[in-house]
Structure formats: structure tokens, C-alpha cells
Amino acid sequence: MKIVLFVEGHTEKALPELLKRWLDPRLPQPIGIKIARFEGWRRRCAPRSRASARIRRP
């Protein structure tokens, strides 16, 4: 079994080891965990200030 985690940024690099240590004793076979790092989600979800909304307005 293989799990792919989609994470943003570098701070989540400890997550695969934690999940593997927790899941391996509970499953019949060891699993592989791969990290797919991306950026940009934070910018899309962050609230905009009034100033930035006015600057970006056409």
C-alpha cells in the first residue's frame, strides 16, 4: 500500500515518519508514504486586506 500526502511548505516533513510509525504496527504489511509538496493554497485562502484588494482591482 502507498499513501501520497499533499502538504504545503517544509514544516510538514515530519508527518510521513509519524504516520508510518503509527500505521505499520496496525497493518499486515508496511506502507510507503510519499510527500507531494505544493505552494499557493495559503495565498488563495487568506483573507485580503482592503489595501491589497484596491491595488489588485482593475
Topology of helices and strands:
Layout: E1 2-8, H1 15-23, E2 32-38, H2 41-45, H3 50-56
Parallel strand pairs: 1-2
Summarize the structure.
This protein is of the alpha+beta class and 58 residues long. The chain has helices at 15-23, 41-45, 50-56; strands at residues 2-8, 32-38.
Looking at this protein, list some descriptive labels.
single chain; 58 residues; alpha+beta; two-stranded parallel ribbon; 3 helices; 36% helix; DUF4276 family protein
- In total, the number of domains comes to 1
Helix/strand class:
alpha+beta
Mean pLDDT score, rounded? Answer: 75
- State the total count of DSSP E strands: 2
Side by side, the strands of the main sheet go 1-2
Distance between the termini: 49 Å
Q: Specify the biggest β-sheet.
A: 2 strands, parallel
State the share of residues found in helices, binned by percent. 25-40%
Strand content: 15-25%
Counting DSSP H or I runs of 4 or more residues, the number of helices is 3
**Basic shape:** rod-shaped
N-to-C SSE string, H for helix and E for strand: EHEHH
**How big is the Rg?**
18 Å
Low-confidence segments, given as residue ranges, are none
